[in-house]
């Protein structure tokens, strides 16, 4: 780059213009004319070689002109213009029509992820709904009633915003499901050392291209939502990132709970091999879900693994408490009965094989395998069950599979349920 030569005349001229711009005041009678003079002067400067040949100077001049034009528009605004704008933006008449627009907004977001950025102005406009119910309350000066009414309508508006933005976590998890289908059957985990001959077997160009395509789509959804700044809906501040995180938690809980419910179904005469096969299949499914969430966590800007551990623990504890309440051993308030802020509801399903939850069926499956009616015995030194011929039935390998699939929280839940069963049997024996 050539050395820039200082021009004292231009430097003096720009310093004087900066000083003049700083002295501008918002007077509709004089300011627009003065700004127009500055704009014309800067436009004429653009034709000079010293300005036109330097991209940095040209950029600063163009930006200054654009800012001056914006200042001129603001300076020409009058009070009656603001009143007209407030009148046009009044949305209080459409309170009962809001829900009819949700499907249209969802369709718009699906086709253009950046449309979320433009919805911010719509959400701010919705705050005008508060004007009508609060007008008379403000006139009488009842502050307690004003706060209660504001809180109610603000909650309604926030719920509407949540319904509109819910399509983004749903769409992200739909793409997340497609990524799981790609990752599970074909892509192998890369080893620490790969030989040159085996390198091609890890490539999978088509599959990785599809993964990158889905990941890019997810990043666009997240970028569109996170580009919205915080806005005030009545008296409640709305944070788009909070909606995104809660939406992802909600979708994750639905998918994981559904997978656990449909996967853990055991026959009464199930063998150890059949039991371990079901646990292994479930472990693969959960690992693929966790890997896919880890794959996209940087694109969405969340700690996906922390969310996974937190929500998995909630699902386990919730289902343990349901089984405990059903056995009337230990009455515990279920998580879905609370009113905590941002509580993600855990889905429940119909009773299957006499059990309320997947954990109940898991315990019944373990008890059927190790039933004393099958003439089994337990060897303490081996930590295993054997049949009367000395054949191995169940031991540390199965427990290791359970720990790998459900984690320490899941195995602790199984331990609690087995303890509840023992307590129930002792109560029945005492009554007898």
> Based on CA inertia axes, which overall geometry fits?
elongated
- Please summarize the sheet with the most strands: 3 strands, antiparallel
What is the helix content? Answer: 55-70%
Rg from C-alpha positions?
Answer: 32 Å
How are the SSEs placed, and which strands pair?
Elements: H1 8-22, H2 31-45, H3 49-52, H4 55-75, H5 79-88, H6 102-111, H7 115-126, H8 131-140, H9 143-165, H10 167-183, H11 205-226, E1 231-233, E2 236-238, H12 240-263, H13 272-300, H14 304-326, H15 358-369, E3 377-379, E4 384-386, E5 392-394, H16 396-431
Antiparallel strand pairs: 1-2, 3-4, 4-5
Fold and architecture overview:
This protein is mostly helical. Helix content is 66%, strand content 3%. The chain has helices spanning 8-22, 31-45, 49-52, 55-75, 79-88, 102-111, 115-126, 131-140, 143-165, 167-183, 205-226, 240-263, 272-300, 304-326, 358-369, 396-431; strands at residues 231-233, 236-238, 377-379, 384-386, 392-394. The protein has a 3-stranded antiparallel beta sheet with strand order 3-4-5, covered by helices on one side. α10 (167-183) runs antiparallel to α11, α10 packs across α12 and α12 (240-263) packs antiparallel against α13 (272-300). The radius of gyration is 32 Å and the shape is elongated. The termini are far apart. The model has no long low-confidence stretch (mean pLDDT 80).
Question: Which labels suit this protein?
Answer:
mainly alpha; 5 strands; 432 residues
